[in-house]
Write a structure and sequence with these properties.
By secondary structure, the protein is mainly α.
Length: 118
């Protein structure tokens, strides 16, 4: 299941005609970062975040934090927040990180620990 979702998301990222701009910063590592999240590879996530933008958006308006939450990757959620992920970002469906984490108590607790209330 994760592999199928990963292929779809990677296809979404590769559909961009050029580098993605987020708040004036170019995020060239969006595909690699997403791949690392789908693989559950915390070290690769940290490497990609250090090389690019922790808040790069995909076509669904999700930042990497939203992707990690969707995959229930608690360690990666923690790492992304530590590296400056925007916990207050709202995706194109109008969901915040905490709303996306509903039913995932470990991730809900991480988000609350970092000050996200709704």
């Amino acid at each position: 299941m994760k592999l199928c979702i990963a292929l779809v998301v990677l296809g979404v990222f590769s559909a961009f005609s050029g580098p993605q701009t987020v708040s004036g910063h170019i995020a060239k590592n969006a595909v690699e970062l997403t791949r690392a999240i789908y693989n559950g590879d915390v070290a690769a996530v940290e490497r990609e975040v250090n090389a690019g933008n922790v808040n790069a958006l995909n076509d669904l308006g999700e930042n990497p934090l939203h992707v990690a939450i969707g995959l229930n990757e608690a360690q990666i959620v923690e790492k992304l927040i530590e590296k400056g992920a925007n916990v207050n970002h709202v995706d194109l469906d109008g969901r915040t990180a905490l709303q996306k984490a509903k039913g995932k108590p470990e991730i809900e607790e991480i988000l609350r620990k970092h000050g996200k209330q709704n």
